[in-house]
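Question: Now follow the chain.
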Amino acid sequence: MDMMRFHDLYLRLYTEDLQANGEELLDQFFALWSEAEESGIDLDTLNEEADDCFHRIAETRLFPLAACRWIGELGRVEISKPLLHHVSVRYLQHPELLRFQLPKGLELYALSAASRMCVMNVPVPVSLGWILSLNEDLPTSSRLTSTIAKIVGLLTTEYPGTCMRLLKSENSPFAHSQIAQDALKRLVAAGTALEDLPYLTELEMPPAMERSFRYLRRNESRTVTDHAHEHSLFGTVTAQHFKYASSIAMECVANGEATDMTVPMFTHEMSLELPQTWIADPLRYVLMMNSLWNGSDE
């Protein structure tokens, strides 16, 4: 199979009108993927060749349609994972919930996709935004009500800090949603109840344990830093490490002339809330996710 066909399709995804031809292009991409998969091409190679197409789909209006079909209707994990990877990278630290324009005629598949995206660990701005978008766009039904209650309850239980931050955002597209307001009230009440619990000195770390904990954290940080240095692009340019510098000067050669170039240095921090059940009982969390996936078609 000629893998250059993915490149040709990628160019069409950028040049053609996605509003008019998006559905056709998505069908062609799925057919091309299925053909490559059936021909026995290694999955890693296939993901690499189709990576640009996934990136383009994830950042455009095609994502809701692709999610409904590939995740909700077909449940194809192999093609859904790389798509959701690009979505996760794009919205991992997104400060607000996302408002999706869901495709018409795929309401049942959109409900199934809501559950399965939670299982596949998409960021909370995506999963919570998706289910709240369903509440805004779809007509009321018993399945919609039960799915919304299940997904919103799951997300607020597993990611309470992230959900509270997103629901409190002044620019939230769901500021007037009653379901969002009720979820925020429950989170605030739970946080207040937690703060009102008595402080138990018995749970404090003894000095020896605190020293051991600080040592472990310092050792972990050093390991992460060493790993980053090994794979750093900066390390291919210079072997010098400037620990406290805010900018550095590097010598560059262009057209046979050596010039100095100033490169600013900055730090970047990010935080990610892990599922509460996974922290406390990983096996139970796996069983919960399996049940959520299997029950998404009911």
